[in-house]
Write a structure and sequence with these properties.
The complex is a heterodimer of chains A (257) and B (254).
Chain A: H1 2-31, H2 42-47, H3 55-86, H4 88-103, H5 110-117, H6 121-145, H7 149-156, H8 162-199, H9 205-214, H10 218-246, H11 252-256
Helix pairs in contact in A: 3-4, 3-6, 3-8, 3-9, 3-10, 5-6, 5-8, 6-8, 8-9, 8-10, 9-10
Chain B: E1 6-16, E2 21-32, E3 37-41, H1 48-55, E4 63-68, E5 81-84, H2 96-100, H3 102-107, H4 111-124, H5 140-152, E6 158-162, H6 170-187, E7 190-195, H7 198-204, E8 207-212, E9 217-223, H8 238-250
Parallel strand pairs in B: 3-7, 3-8, 5-6, 6-7
Antiparallel strand pairs in B: 1-2, 1-4, 8-9
Helix pairs in contact in B: 4-5, 7-8
The chains are: A mainly alpha (257), B alpha/beta (254).
Chain lengths: 257, 254
């Protein structure tokens, strides 16, 4: 009973703070007599969806790039982390490199990726992937290595195999780490896809933004940002859902939060 | 006298790194009979844990004889060992029953029977009704009970315990001491119990080995002839005091 009212209160607060911001935005524009090309009201932003641009197509393109790049990042990030965890020498050798690579502002790599991979949907997927896989790799590697040595002794005293240690202890133990990396990666994957579209693309919401910017169609730019945000939020929602399913009702959920 | 279950003779072990050698165990000589509860007591660095790891087959020894099982009581390394550590090391994402089943899974034992056995063991360690709980829902003492049940699930012949109650508060620890004596009596297992606590070593052990540090060696070992069932008030008995004084003396603390 208490739990239900607690969560109702939590959701009410979440909705309330967002409503307040939207209302404040509206009155800021109206009362401040802000010109349309500087900032539209929330209503004008929403209305721009009925404009002449192909919103559906461009949103689908960007969604495809984000989800594609992200899926690739999860698969490659986790796979590399597993390889690292299986060979201490490889990981000792490569992990410092991974950490320094992670320090590069990856968005700045965008133009270089365009040179390497050319324009279009595929290259944008690759950019989204390149930008978002490092945090997954790093957190997963850490998770896989965090096994109590005595637990390994216990398994080894029963002649447990490397594979058993991996499937029964390491992998399930690293799930909270994998998900924390995956959550960070969502925002990066979205940024990666948009950067790709900014730099060179003929479709997608990032491309659309640059087109309408020329005409100072600010409501359409706001709409594009809103849609990009929604793509990110949807992906984040999916990740949270998966986390709820796989990282079950144990203490790790509270620790991770 | 029947052949001992474990025969140790002059066992020693030295850890070597590039720069230095570290003598971890020496002069370990003792016979342990089936069904005994042997306590290994001594300060840090006396080689208790190393000796335990040698018995578990996790480390090789450099010198001496380590002979476990034989005759009508064969011992299969990698099968007949159960281990309990200071931390319960329960897997946070597994229910208690599934934690207890881990050794059975690793050994590939038939799961139906093992599940049955795991339930019986949880009953024996006093965790009825907690099968479907997660470890975080249990207190430290209860987690250690689950860890003990886990060490027994594959019906091993030798249980090795490395300070299993070291992380518990003093009162829970005394309660768990009595629980362990009961579990030992019921399960009839051979248990080797490593501890820092002289009182614990005397209360629990049917035999006690005293190890000293710097250099690490087994200083002495003797039987503890206190009556069963053992009770906490035995700690005030004169005979108990004789044993603890003997250990203090061996450790150079008198």
């Amino acid at each position: 009973m208490n739990n239900i009212s607690d969560s109702a209160r939590k959701w009410a607060l979440i909705i309330l703070v967002h409503v307040i911001v939207v209302v404040a935005w509206h009155y800021f524009v109206v009362l401040g007599e802000v010109p349309l090309y500087v900032m539209p009201t929330p209503g004008q932003t929403i209305m721009s969806i009925f404009g002449e641009y192909n919103w559906l197509h461009n949103t689908m393109i960007t969604t495809g790039e984000v989800f594609g790049g992200y899926a690739l990042a999860v698969v490659v990030g986790v796979t590399l982390a597993v390889l690292f965890s299986w060979n201490a020498t490889v990981s000792e050798f490569l992990m410092p490199l991974v950490v320094s690579l992670n320090m590069i502002p990856k968005v700045a790599m965008g133009p270089i990726f365009i040179v390497w991979f050319d324009y279009g949907l595929g290259p944008n997927i690759i950019i989204a992937f390149m930008i978002s896989f490092l945090p997954i790799l790093i957190t997963t590697t850490r998770g896989l290595m965090e096994v109590e040595p005595e637990l390994l002794d216990l398994v080894k005293s029963l002649k447990g195999s490397r594979w058993q240690i991996f499937t029964k202890i390491q992998l399930p133990g690293s799930l909270p780490y994998i998900f924390s990396g995956m959550k960070v990666a969502v925002v990066l994957a979205v940024a990666g896809a948009i950067v790709g579209e900014f730099i060179g693309s003929e479709e997608g919401l990032g491309y659309l933004m640059q087109q309408v910017q020329v005409d100072l169609d600010t409501p359409a730019m706001f709409m594009a940002v809103l849609l990009i945000t929604l793509i990110g939020v949807s992906l984040y929602g999916i990740v949270i859902l998966l986390e709820r399913i796989f990282v079950k009702s144990d203490s790790r959920m509270e620790n991770a939060a | 006298m029947t052949k001992p279950f474990i025969h140790l003779e002059g066992v020693s072990k030295t850890y070597r790194s590039r720069r230095q050698e570290f003598l971890a165990v020496s002069d370990a000589t003792m016979d342990i009979h089936e069904g005994e509860l042997v306590s290994l007591v001594g300060p840090s660095g006396c080689g208790k844990t190393t000796l335990l790891k040698i018995l578990a087959g996790l480390h090789d020894h450099d010198e001496g004889i380590v002979d476990i099982g034989g005759g009508d009581n064969p011992f299969e390394p990698g099968r007949d060992v159960g281990m309990v550590f200071q931390q319960s090391l329960l897997l946070k994402w597994r229910k208690i029953i599934d934690n207890v089943l881990l050794p059975a899974e690793i050994l590939g034992l038939p799961m139906g029977e093992s599940r049955e056995r795991a339930r019986d063991l949880l009953h024996m360690v006093g965790l009825d009704g907690f099968e479907q709980n997660y470890p975080y829902e249990l207190s430290g003492g209860m987690q250690q009970r689950a860890a003990i049940a886990r060490s027994l699930v594959h019906d091993p012949k030798l249980i090795l315990m490395d300070e299993p109650f070291g992380a518990l508060d003093a009162l829970t620890r005394e309660k768990m001491n009595l629980e362990l004596l009961r579990i030992w009596t019921e399960s009839k297992k051979t248990i080797i119990f490593v501890t820092h606590s002289i009182q614990e070593a005397v209360l629990l052990g049917s035999r006690c080995a005293v190890l000293t540090a710097g250099p690490a060696r087994m200083a002495d070992q003797f039987e503890i002839e206190l009556d069963y069932p053992r009770t906490l008030d035995m700690k005030t008995h004169e005979k108990f005091g004789v044993y603890t004084r003997r250990i203090y003396k061996l450790l150079g603390m008198e």
